[in-house]
Predict the structure.
Amino acid sequence: MNINPRAIQKSVEVLSNKKVGSYHHMVFSVGEMALHAKPGNFVAISVGGNSSAMVLRRAFAIYRASDRGNFGGTIELVVAAHGSGSRWLSERSIHDRVDMVGPLGTSFGIPTEPVSALLVGGGYGSAPLFGLAEVLKQRGCRVDIVLGASNANKIYAPLEGKRSVNTMTLTTEDGGAGVKGKVTDVLPQLIEKHSTEIIYSCGPMAMLEAVEKISQRFEILHQCAVEESMACGIGVCMTCVIPLKDENGTIKMQRSCIEGPVVDGSRVIWGSNRQIPPGTFGSQALGISAHE
Amino acid sequence: MNEFQSFDFRTKFGNRYFPSPIFTASGCAGSGKELAQFFDLDELGAVVTKSIAVKPRSGRATPRMAETPSGMLNSIGLQGPGIDQFLATDIPWLQSKGARVIVSISGETVEEYATLARKLRGISALYGIEVNISCPNVENRGLVFACDPVASRAVIEAVRRNIGGDYPIIAKLSPDVTDIVAIAREVVSAGADGLALINTILGMVIDIDAVRPKLAGITGGLSGPAIRPVAVRAIYQIHEALPSTPILGMGGVASGRDALELIFAGASGVSVGTATFGNPTAVIKVKEELLSLLQSKGFKSLQEAIGAAHV
């Protein structure tokens, strides 16, 4: 696979920046970039300004994209300011410009038939699910969503997001909102109740792995947006790899910015942080090796 | 346009001319296809490929990357498809785009370097071979070739024997040595037409919450503007000692000003690496800025500027 053929680099203007709970909801005027953005795609943004010591681009999942409206094409992001780069971005004011590359990566597959879909989001990982919900609704799908986090402040659940779903279930580990526990605690009963036919998930890798186990138990298709730290977002740095099975069952270290972020959960070799899964293509050649 | 034509921006390594001195850096340009989304590859002096090995390599486990002040550590482990797949897919594609290609090769034994050189003969887009000797020599307890003058010589001699005289050989040196000039002299006398420097500097980051090394590979190569002064120093020292050997300089170049600094130190060409991660069009930006900077300083050719800082 290659880089998203629609990706462009553009200096874009900040149209709005609002604090929502623990997050910043930001809107950017992006022109034609919005036209090609699909749910699951992401953008890569240069941070820190020209004399910055931060040399790497930051990747953000697209929350929503619109190619219409007063400002032409817009892309919306939900930014969690928990690193110095995301903090810099969250501090941008209206009319500031940032350098954005997008849309990047794969998108969620949209069923051709109206089906019953269950969307599962962890923390700020829920961001791309709202745009997905809108598209699924337009296709006549039933859409149920589960959002979970450690506490209520970390759940991103905007009011307008509720309009495009049939039901919304919240879970918090401290019990501060919704059901006390994890998203996976409520999944089995929701799957049975709504006769779920496809699951879409986005959030921390451990959550995605747990969702994949449940989807296998119920024999439901599961598409997930994976998370691995990226340096470039455009497929050149080779840092964001995860082990994925290809169509022949061969495990290869694949770039999550090119082959992902959205992949079928059944393709992922889970729990592979800090190790190359046995049998991975090319792992025999890896002895003591060079730095590049 | 006329102004551009009146300025001679060409550079030369071995018997090959390049229309511009700005190249990509090995391991920082993917297969070329990714960057071709943003600009035409024939705008570059040359595309330097990722270091290719005899066999496919999965590379290392993640985390492979840690950002550091004005730089980053990487521990990719030379992930790649192996030379046969590379010749079947990457090279024909680069050739079809009119790119001038410098293939970077890496081996674990002298014989592997020889095999790689043999397989590269006859490729029309090939403008040179970069020999990445910053690899552990499995026949000598994993000691990195580039840290051992005898092993460095053996690799370059083997590549020269197998590639023939038609293609320039550029030996890529590691800064992690006591006397980089001694290694440079050795590989040049063994048949290298040029030198590429510097490779990354070995470094390490510890995750203070997890209380363990941040990278799965424990150590990683430091790159980015943080290492630029080391690159300038190494280029300056080698150009002083070997003024007729062309140097492909690299190390934290992100602007035309940075490139000019390396050229004044003695570089005949400059590779842009880590800057591409932060900006896909960094290499084009560097090229355009360098050209206008050289002209504004009154130079008539790139050649006049090479090594100008030497007194």
User: Anything to note?
Assistant: The two ends of chain B are 34 Å apart (CA to CA).
